[in-house]
Model the fold of this input.
Amino acid sequence: MGTKNLIFKNKIKFILNDKITAPVIFYNNEKKSFSSLFEILPKNLRLNISKIVEKEKLNKGEVKVFHTFDNEIKNIILIGISKLNIRDFHYFSRLPIKIALKEKIEKIDIKPDDLYIFDTKDQLLNYFEFIKYFVVNIIMADFDFSQYYKKEPEGGWFHIKQINFLIDKNLDEVKRKINEGILISEEVNTARVISNMPGGDMTPEIFVDIIKQHTKDFEGKVKIFNKKQLEKMGMNSILAVGKGSIHPPFLVILEYLPNKKEKPLVYIGKGITFDTGGLHLKPSEGMKDMNLDMSGGASVFTAVIAISKNKIKKNVVALIPIAENFPGADAYRPGDLIKSYSGKVIEIGSPDAEGRVILADAIEYSKKYNPKFILTLATLTGAAMVALGDKVSAILSDLDENEIKKIIDLSYMCGDFVWPLPLWEEYRNDIKPQFGDIWNIGKSRYGGIMHGAVFLWEFAKPFKLVHIDMAPKMVANNEENLSSGSVGFGVKLLYELSKNF
Done:
């Protein structure tokens, strides 16, 4: 499969205030009322639908689809709704697309205001950002990675062709936000494609080739350090993790610096293209989905592309250490003492805690940019999933509480939800080694998510660190109304951080 095929392009056409043929209608089961599009239906349809809802009820998230065919209204999608929070919005805005795909409805008509009804909307999501993320969620919901590998059915793959937004105010700004949302969603879905690729089709070399392909029009600089250059630089941590594989490691840097007067944000994404666990080989079930262990790197990469495409006048630098963690003849071993790029000696407690090891060299290199803060995005620990399940990623940071709250609010706004856990000096004692400067695991299995974050913190100092352990959101859960596999977590949040910090 050529790398060109892995760059996602949106094919849904968004139009405003066109003729209505397939309306999406919401029924509020608390208020016993239909959303405004209900009133445009022919009287006989309104009566029939009212009787059905009254008889069967329609709870939150439940769906009815009516194919009328004898009216100008060809299809009706009816969705039960009640009081919404912002998390609900992201899930519910995808639901009409999920239904339309199932029912083979190519065009649907939506009045976005019908979902602009959640609490604290003015504090976290103004109307135009709401429109932007409605568009993002629609395009995310139309994506299905299986189509990249499955045999194409006769007649081709079914996709939504057109969304008719019914909006009667501020149309110029609405159009601008629709276009911004399209560009963001293309990069989210590109991250999903790259992350979902099987490990055999996404080696470090192929990942680098994709980055080269997708940065041809990038309004910044791209630096790619190969194995020989890493050796010359002393990037021994990245090199150590990649030693067991026949595929060499890399460090990729994207510099987007349109504003020379301000410090950049630095984003660092874990790029382990496949993680076997190395000599601490994972069990078969634990190795499942480990092709997605480079999801942080994919999201950091595509987030900067989205920032560049939308011409955000903020400085951002992305670093992606890329390697494959294999138990080869020269694989790094438990007990190895690795002199990292910073000079700190990492004592290896487990070759399966490799993500933090490659991130250490990238963090140290990033300091030369004198960043506002360093953000690491990584599928770092299974402990994060033990703590938080599959609903939200963890954020650990030494920023002040107001700044952390700002990041959390932005995560709710864009749909990349994060939840805070402590980054305290006390956890430093848990990773004190026998011979080196720092151990890559904790002394016990308790608090593993903090151990990984504190390890990274030791390399980030004296700069502020924002660490996001995205392991809980590596793949979609059942509530998200998305296809299986990667959700492209982090692209939206990093994009918003660039605009707001």
User: Anything to note?
Assistant: The first helix runs from residue 43 to 56.
